[in-house]
Specification:
It contains no helices and 9 strands. With 80 residues, it is mostly beta strands. The strands form 3 sheets. It has a 5-stranded mixed beta sheet with strand order 2-9-8-5-6, with no helix packed on it. A two-stranded antiparallel ribbon has the order 1-4.
Length: 80
């Protein structure tokens, strides 16, 4: 269970990559909570944030089981 992304600057699109693997079966559901009131069910979503730090949560499931991982994503202000 996991995902990757890079910290970004304001106005950049943040690309999330779901790296979750289930040895018992295929992942059939996922829900991304970007921590800013927005969400997605895409495999590898792209999202824009305002400046700040966000607790991004991915919930993946196989139908009968689900797991959750949360990581902090930091969006830096645009340099002058």
């Amino acid at each position: 269970m996991g995902f990757t992304t890079a910290n970004s600057c304001l106005n950049d699109s943040v690309i999330f990559t779901d790296t979750s693997i289930n040895v018992d079966g295929q992942i059939v559901s996922r829900n991304w909570d970007f921590g800013d009131g927005n969400s997605s069910s895409d495999l590898n979503p792209v999202h824009k944030f305002n400046s700040g730090s966000y607790q991004v949560r991915l919930i993946s499931g196989t139908g009968s089981c689900a797991d959750t991982i949360t990581k902090t994503v930091t969006i830096h202000p645009t340099p002058d």
